[in-house]
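Hi L.,

As promised, Subfamily B ATP-binding cassette protein MsbA:
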Amino acid sequence: MEYFKKILQFALPYRKYGFLNIFFNILYALFSALSFAALIPMLDVLFKPENRITVKPVYTDLGHLKDYLQEYINYRVNLYSGDDQMKGLVLVIGLVLILFLLKNFFNYLAMYFITFLRNGVLKDIRNKMYQKITDLPVSYFSEKRKGDVIARVTSDVLEIQHSFLSVLELIVREPLTILFTIIIMFGISTKLTLFVFIFIPIAGMIISRIGKSLKKKSDRVQKEQGEFLSIVEETLGGLRVIKAFNAESKFYNTFKNSTNRFFKFSNTLLNRQNLASPTGEFLGILVIGVLLWFGGKMVLVDKTLDASSFIAYMGLAYNILTPAKAISKASYGVKKGNAAAERVLQILETENSITEKSDAVVKTDFNEEIQLKGVSFKYEDDFVLKSLNLKIPKGHTVALVGQSGSGKSTIANLVTRFYDVNEGGILIDGIDIKDMTKKSLRDLMGLVTQDSILFNDTVKNNIALGKDNATDEEIAEAAKIANAHEFILDLPNGYDTNIGDSGNKLSGGQKQRLSIARAVLKNPPIMILDEATSALDTESERLVQDALEKMMLNRTSLVIAHRLSTIQKANTIVVLKKGKISEIGSHEELLAKKGAYQKLVAMQSFDS
């Protein structure tokens, strides 16, 4: 129930729909019970014409309310019909039909209003989850499989709607239907109703035993669903590699094994769940059978109950079965929904390790320098950077070089605050970036990565990502600086061309130039280039390098370089080795030292 309460908090903005649902459910439950009670006068008209009441009855006390109502309806029917019994019968049938019509009308209104609440909660949970996913640090998703996260946003949230939120429809209606029905049943025969209550707890115990293991079984189903969605996501992302290595059958077998497990888990879960309905129905009919015996004895032998009241009583007893079955199914739904809610709330309640102070500074300009002061950082157990000190003055280009794993990209991740340092600090104009708002920090920076991350949208919208309300002229100007304008005009719809999933309709060089245009349009004072040319051919590299030089003009740049030919003009080159600075200086100074940098240059010259 703890998860149920947490999910119900999302229903608070829609509480007016909840109250309307409760109001109409009360009316539904009341008319549901009355519609069966109204059968008694109809049966009296049919089977007891000799008991016609021609004198208006007098109300005495609450104890005789049932008799008074029966006699009063009988009296009104006789007053209307006179000697024509068919006229009286039509009147009573009309009354029963009106009561059933009102019952179903109120049921529709109750369901109409709960629909807004259910779908509103579903919408808000999904929005909250997406907001949380975009807010959580990059490190969170290096530990999670993307497919599992997608499964939580899609199927787990739907499971909450089908299980938890469907309970909201029943939480008032079914108990009230049972309550009003039982009140009328007591009014007809206290003895018979008390007899029914002996069997209800026994039936409840049997049904609850069936539902105990549902949460565990449901959890297995949802985890496996996340597993095969991850396989699908990885397959789509790496389809070229899979085909190139003829690994289709290997991935198919992995997927098939996952769906086989899902098949087995789902069968176990659904068969356990399916047991609820027939068990509940049989127990209900068993109660009806016992009632027929006991009530029949009261009518035929003891003469303590009249036949018309007994038939109506049996209708009321059967009227309890449907809501009782719905409640037992709802209890299964809550158990099944618990597993889905737990997985959804795991994301929603995850603490963001990259926190923002309540008095965080909004920094809108960059005036002096970026300083890394005694920075140490580790992803897991071993430090990737150790006591690193570095200054990047305004207007300077600082290049980071070194072998893979030396910590180059880590510095870019720390400066943008995708991760937080373990020791030391990163300062911009003397202010620690932990003391700034994340938004204002990232507004100061533009990022061009080795993998051009583009989105399934138009060229225009991809370039305009970092600047709201950018004009067509500004977008075109940014594209010209990035050497992208010409190839964009050659596309089928120019700037309005959709570039496909991850920009797959473009070449590597074209994608990278769009990434640069995006950074140029944002026009930040600090630019971070993470191996922006390493994946390109020579011609594309020349175009991209030219675009980068135009972009870095009069700008502070932190360049992570793989190809050393691209950073010879940098003001400062920092050579990293195992998370420490081994050399620092300009291109000429470092060559003159004939140290680690000179060896790297010689190796690349030899390779080329």
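Residues 2 and 110 are 26 Å apart (CA to CA).

Thanks again for sending the construct details.

K.
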